[in-house]
Specification:
elongated; single chain
């Protein structure tokens, strides 16, 4: 038996065409973000309780 190489090779065309991929870091411990998520979670749980 012989091992054959795959006919297709993965390529990422935007990079090949000269486009850049920009990455950004987001703060994970932002107090405003944590507060907003907690408020949204509590509002969501209240809406679920009122549906019954």
């Amino acid at each position: 038996m012989q091992e054959t190489s795959p006919a297709m090779t993965p390529e990422f065309y935007p990079v090949k065409e000269g486009h850049k991929i920009l990455l950004a870091k987001s703060p994970k411990d932002d107090p405003k973000l944590v507060y907003r998520q907690e408020v949204e979670r509590r509002i969501g749980s209240r809406k679920k309780q009122k549906q019954f």
